[in-house]
Amino acid sequence: MTMEVDILELSDRSAKFVLSNTSAAFANGIRRASLADVPTIAITEVNIYNNTSVLYDEQLGLRMALIPLTSNMEDFVPKEECSCGDFCPACQVSLTLSAEGPKIVYSQDLVSSDDKVQPADPNIPIADLREGQKIVLEAIAHMGYGNKHSRWQAGVACGYKNMPKVEFSGCDLCGACVTECPVDIIKMGTESAEISQEDMLKCTLCRLCEGVCDIDAIDVKTDEHSFIFTMESDGSYNTKELILNAGNVIKNKAASLAEILSAL
Ligand SMILES: [Zn+2]
């Protein structure tokens, strides 16, 4: 069976789609890869030249590290995989910040040495500076993996559930399930209660309908080979790139396994 993807919603930051004719292992592989194995660029070191804000240097460093930066797997490599041995534009990016109060310092105040590496959101607050307070620093960003530290986690709120399958047989049209359903997706037809294909996606598998039916006419099951995915990106990549990168990560791992095995 060929795997099928049915896109329900797709925007820069989030996606919802149905993945069918596949296994739970593959679905989980995509989920894990997007959380842990798709590398992103994040700030790892901060050289602070002046900080008279109310934040400790460490707090400032922590905030900087958690600002998502736009990433690009074609132009950058994780530092430990770079052939330069020290640092170069392919594995390291410098961002500077120079601000004086009174003002709120936002992520957009960071000046990057690389046009492709920019804060994914311009309005992430960093510090609230009062009159005369200053922050002057240089932040060094590297590419890395979410499995090492959450600063490099591209996917957020990535998850899936099996496609619900609710079957009605011998329904006596009592309507108890219609009123019981918390997501209000069961409608009364002429011969039986029913759920439209579109509404089936909203089923939370709570099984309340099954419990309230006195004649056991409802059977709530799941499709073991079909998954409803939701994915959000932190902005390092748009959602489409994130999913493609996750797929490529799995593909490359399989290819390197094949390479190792063929060399034996
Ligand atoms: Zn390098």
TrEMBL record:
Its EC number is 2.7.7.6. [3Fe-4S] cluster binds at C203, C206, C209. Residues 162-191, 194-223 form the 4Fe-4S ferredoxin-type domain. SMART domains: RPOLD. It is found in: Cytoplasm. PROSITE patterns: 4FE4S_FER_1, 4FE4S_FER_2. Part of the RNA polymerase complex. Belongs to the archaeal Rpo3/eukaryotic RPB3 RNA polymerase subunit family. DNA-dependent RNA polymerase (RNAP) catalyzes the transcription of DNA into RNA using the four ribonucleoside triphosphates as substrates. This is DNA-directed RNA polymerase subunit Rpo3. It comes from Methanomethylovorans hollandica (strain DSM 15978 / NBRC 107637 / DMS1).
